[in-house]
Design a protein that fits this description.
The complex is a heterodimer of chains A (about 400) and B (about 350). Chain A is of the alpha+beta class. Chain A folds into two domains: about 1-50 and about 275-405, no CATH class; about 90-260, no CATH class. Chain A has helices at about 1-15, 20-50, 55-60, 70-75, 75-80, 95-100, 135-140, 165-170, 215-225, 240-255, 275-310, 315-320, 325-360, 370-395, 400-405, and strands at about 60-65, 105-120, 125-135, 145-150, 160-165, 180-185, 185-195, 210-215, 230-235, 265. In chain A, strands 2-3-8-5-7-6 form a six-stranded mixed β-barrel. In chain A, a hairpin with a 2-residue loop joins strand 6 (about 180-185) and strand 7. The longest helix of chain A is centred in the last third of the chain and has 39 residues, at about 275-310. Chain B has about 350 residues and is α/β, with parallel strands linked by helices. Chain B folds into two domains: about 10-235, 3-Layer(aba) Sandwich (Rossmann fold); about 245-340, no CATH class. Chain B is built from eight helices and 14 strands. Chain B has helices at about 50-60, 80-90, 110, 115-120, 125-135, 150-165, 180-195, 320-340, and strands at about 10-20, 25-35, 40-45, 65-70, 75, 95, 170-175, 200-205, 215-220, 225-230, 245-250, 260, 265-270, 305. In chain B, a hairpin with a 5-residue loop joins strand 12 (about 260) and strand 13 (about 265-270). Chain B is globular and about 65 Å long. The chains are: A alpha+beta (about 400), B alpha/beta (about 350). The interface of A and B includes residues 11, 319 and 325 of A.
């Protein structure tokens, strides 16, 4: 049996070789389908990886406290994804931060109050700069690296700021910005530190730290009447403490707010939930569309195989006359279509990777092709080869040898 | 010489093949009976549409009779599955067609080795066997030619090589010389006769009455039935695979006496019919040889056959050589005529 399969494999290769141009073109149909699937999956895989690089390790013992909104009640993920957390009216307060910091499983608490405002540097106004009011714990929680100077510190005077890597270049023409000043909301701030470039510009904080100015939230609350805390980042001592801490925070906050449950806690994997879900929805939609092209490629293979069967009617007759059984003929033609689709899949992998690479040149992330993607697309294209090759093969196998031998092209 | 009768290899009883139904009903074969013994060389003749090819297709298991019983090597084919039939075709039946039916995009050697694919030989073994048989047919140097690069006669020899490669017991030839000129036809018939002398059973359909001289049995068909059935060789004299080596001579010119030079001492002159003689040391009365020992001028090539022809170095004498010899003998006889 193995010998027979091997023989059929070689027969199929030989006959495909005799029609190189046709083989190439019919494999190209499958190749384009596979390439587009590989491209989509590798790009979404790349984005996904970019987001989740550190989340599973460093952020495992992280709890996010956010003001709850009606959208999470509906459980409609699209709603949840498309609405913007930042502009929800928050009822989280600095007292809540204080409450949380008193829980014993908690090692660090950092509130985030994000706003976009104008700042003035040397009489030049920079509109829409993102100002993050937070505290010194943020450095510990996010594992931030300092390029120059230092992070916010309780021991320092209050009107200092730490600025992101990109904004330092923008505002002060470089990362050597220590002791430089800017004004925001009528207050003068001095730069004490410049952050190193962060690895994950898209993250659960909803802010790009490279383009942000970090100021002391206690100081900010003195000149801003109603400061909006969008999120409180909480880090526990160990990963095992997370569950306990969640309970304590829940009960502590509820107590402090007199039973007001208008907040929600997000832990571990759910940190990435919004981005991950959006990606998976988009990528599955796109993959679905791309698989249509795979089906079109399959139809192309079927078409070519049907032409080939009718062209080779006489050959089929000869083969049957010299001893080929119907199953021999069936296998020969089925192998041809399977080989065509495998060939297409290989071409598709290469094409897809090239496209993904080209696209990655203009995007901030590298495409990620996993073995799963290759395995699944490979398997799917073989299935396509079988599905679309079986009909022509059956047609070939069922040809009557006598009429086939009389067939003239 | 062993005298027991050869076994029956094909037995057809009341075979009918009907086409169409009702008003359109017609019979290609009607209650056809035929018994073929191993080693027979049967020529089937008859007008077009008398059912010759249908008969061949049924014998070759390509077609199925509407009614009647067909026993192949003692087994009824009615009960054989189509897969078994295919295997039987691969191993026991060799087909030769009028239009050669070589696969155009396979080389000569691949075409010849085609039946071996389906009897489960590995590629190297297939090619080796094909190489051996092509050597016998003097086509070794054309092994990797494509069929379109060969002449009709060469293509038909390739087809014959293909039909013989799995050493089948029956060879079915459907007008193998129909597309060939007379010289190529002659070569093909020589090949077939040689194959036959090795004990193979050949059933051949032809329109050419001149070829019937090669046969041991001539069947004339008319409207799906046997019209005449003439055996020219008794059953016990049919060649068997184990026959001792013998020399057979065929003379094309039948009008005037032809002299055969067997060796330096023995010469034979033949007038009229074909002659088969044995080596002078062991005379054999296969057909009536008329021996004379006069002239030395007519030389006709003498052909030796044995069980394994490919192994005999003297078999390497090319067919072209034979033709040249014959042409020479003709021209010499013409010269002689002029002189006289």
């Amino acid at each position: 049996m193995a010998l027979l399969l091997n023989t059929h494999f070689h027969l199929a290769i030989d006959s495909l070789r005799q029609n190189r141009g046709r083989t190439f073109l019919s494999a190209l149909g499958i190749a384009i389908g596979v390439a587009s699937i590989v491209l989509i999956l590798s790009l979404t895989g790349g984005i996904d990886r970019l987001i989740s690089t550190n989340s599973n390790k460093e952020y495992a013992n992280l709890i996010l406290v956010r003001p709850s909104t009606t959208k999470s009640v509906t459980d409609n993920i699209i709603d949840e994804l498309t609405s913007n957390n930042q502009y929800v009216k928050s009822n989280l307060t600095l007292e809540d931060v204080e409450t949380i910091s008193k829980i014993k499983e908690v090692s660090a608490v950092a509130p985030l109050a994000i706003s976009n405002s104008a700042i003035t540097v040397n009489d030049r106004v920079h509109q829409g700069t993102s100002i993050v009011a937070t505290n010194a714990d943020l450095e510990k929680i996010l594992g931030l690296h300092i390029k120059n100077g230092q992070f916010l510190d309780y021991s320092l005077r209050e009107n200092v700021a730490v600025i992101g890597y990109d904004i330092a270049t923008q505002m002060f023409g470089g990362t050597e910005a220590i002791t430089k000043t800017f004004s925001y909301n009528g207050q003068q701030f001095m730069v004490v530190g410049v952050l190193d470039k962060v690895e994950d510009p898209i993250n659960f904080n909803g802010v790009d730290l490279d383009n942000s100015i970090l100021i002391n939230i206690k100081y900010a609350s003195t000149f801003e009447s109603s400061i909006q805390i969008q999120q409180i980042n909480v880090r526990t001592n160990t990963t095992d403490d997370v569950a306990k801490a969640v309970d304590s925070i829940n009960s502590g906050l509820a107590k402090a707010k007199n039973g007001d449950q208008s907040f929600e806690l997000i832990t571990g994997d759910t940190n990435l939930h919004p981005a991950g879900s959006l990606l998976s929805i988009i990528s599955s939609m796109l993959t679905l569309v791309a698989s249509i092209s795979l089906i079109v490629g399959g139809v192309g293979i079927m078409n070519i195989m049907l032409v080939s069967v009718s062209e080779r009617t006489r050959e089929i007759g000869i083969r049957k006359a010299v001893g080929a059984s119907a199953s021999n003929i069936l296998l020969q033609f089925l192998f041809e279509s399977i080989i065509l689709s495998i060939l297409g899949a290989l071409m598709g992998f290469i094409l897809g990777y090239i496209f993904a690479f080209l696209i990655s040149l203009i995007t901030p992330f590298a495409p990620h092709i996993s073995w799963e993607i290759l395995g699944i697309t490979g398997a799917v294209s073989i299935i396509v080869g079988v599905i679309f090759g079986i009909y022509p093969a059956i047609k070939a196998a069922s040809k009557d040898p006598i009429t086939s031998l009389k067939f003239y092209r | 010489m062993p005298n027991q009768e050869n076994e029956t290899i094909i037995e057809l009883k009341a075979i009918s093949k009907r086409y169409g139904l009702g008003d359109a009903e017609s019979y290609a074969l009607h209650n056809f009976d035929l018994t073929v013994k191993r080693g027979e060389f049967i020529m089937i003749m008859g007008p077009s549409g008398c059912g010759k090819t249908t008969l061949l297709n049924i014998i070759g298991l390509l077609d199925k009779a509407t009614s009647g019983e067909y026993k192949l090597a003692g087994k009824s084919v009615e009960r054989i599955s189509s897969r078994k039939k295919a295997q039987f075709r691969a191993k026991e039946i060799g087909f030769i067609f009028q239009s050669f039916n070589l696969i155009p995009n396979l080389s000569v050697i691949e075409n010849v080795s085609l039946p071996l694919i389906y009897s489960g030989y590995r590629k190297t073994r297939r090619l080796k066997m094909a190489d051996n048989i092509l050597e016998h047919f003097h086509l070794r140097e054309r092994e990797y030619y494509m069929p379109y690069q060969l002449s009709g006669g060469q293509q038909q020899r390739v087809a014959i090589a293909r039909s013989l490669i799995s050493n089948p017991s029956i060879i079915l030839a459907d007008e193998p010389t129909g597309n060939l000129d007379s010289r190529s036809s002659h070569i093909i018939m020589e090949e077939l006769q040689e194959i036959h002398s090795l004990g193979n059973t050949i059933i051949m359909v032809t329109h050419n009455p001149a070829l019937t001289t090669y046969a041991t049995r001539v069947i004339n068909m008319l409207d799906g039935e046997i019209d005449t059935d003439i055996k020219t060789v008794a059953d016990q004299d049919l060649p068997k695979p184990g026959d001792p080596e013998k020399i057979s001579v065929r003379i094309l010119s039948k009008k005037r006496p032809v002299e055969l030079e067997v060796d330096s001492k023995t010469k034979v002159v033949v007038t009229g019919k074909n002659v088969t003689i044995e080596d002078s040391s062991k005379p054999k009365a296969n057909e009536e040889p008329k021996e004379e020992t006069d002239s030395e001028e007519h030389k006709i090539e003498v052909k030796k056959t044995s069980k394994k022809p490919a192994a005999k170095p003297e078999k390497k004498r090319s067919r072209v050589g034979k033709i040249l010899d014959k042409a020479k003998s003709k021209s010499k006889s013409k010269k002689k005529e002029k002189e006289s």
